[in-house]
Structures are given as C-alpha cells and as structure tokens.
Amino acid sequence: MSEASPAQTAHQPAEQAPDAGTDIKSGSPNDFLKGVTGKRVAVRLNSGIDYLGTLSCLDGYMNIAMEETTEHVDGQLKNHLGDAFIRGNNVLYITALEG
Fold first, then answer.
1. What range defines the domain where residue 85 resides?
2. Fewer CB near the terminus (10 Å): N or C of the chain?
3. In a domain, 63, yes or no
C-alpha cells in the first residue's frame, strides 16, 4: 500500500463526491464567458445589486458591456437601463440565465 504525499492529501480532485443533483461541467472560466457572450446573464456586484441582461462583451479586467439590462435590489426590479457598462472590479460573479 503506498502512502499519499502531502500534496496529494492537501488537494482533493474537484470531481470527487459531488452533491446529488449537482451538474458539474469541466472547463475554464474563459470557456464559460465565451459561451455566454450574446446570452442572458445575471451579474452580481460586490454591493449585492444584480444586473440582468444580455452579455455583449467583456475584457481581461472583467469590464462588462450588457444590453437590455435591468437592475435588481434585494430581488426587486428597480430600473430598466438598456445598455450598461459595469467596471470589472465591482463584479462578484456572473451566472448564465439560460442553458
């Protein structure tokens, strides 16, 4: 029986024991962002405000351009913005709204 090195025990593989019903897909964040360009996304800011709209483009700093954008605070629709630009340092995460 071989012993595991400290590096093997410190880093468990990501595909090990996913929760039931969880769909884990491999790929880089860059692949995900390319895949959702032109599709509906939700962008959560560090402040907790959500922007929902169509992702037009983004750059290496995570600056985001969106179309048909709406602003949501605490789950409530606050504004219809149309085109919007979000500075990347304010972004907490981006999630796809369509499959």
1. 27-96
2. N
3. yes
Alpha carbons 93 and 88: distance in angstroms, whole number = 10
Q: Residue 75 pairs with which residues in a beta bridge?
A: none
**SS3 per-residue string spanning the chain:** CCCCCHHHHHCCCCCCCCCCCCCCCCCCHHHHHHHHCCCEEEEEECCCCEEEEEEEEECCCCCEEEEEEEEEECCEEEEEEEEEEECHHHEEEEEECCC
| Range 65-76 average pLDDT | 96
Query: What is the chain's length?
Result: 99
- pTM assigned to the model: 0.71
3-49 pLDDT, tens digit per residue, is 444 444 344 444 444 444 445 567 888 889 999 999 999 999 999 99
Is 49 inside any structural domain? yes
Strand order through the sheet with 64-73: 76-86, 64-73, 50-58, 40-45, 91-96
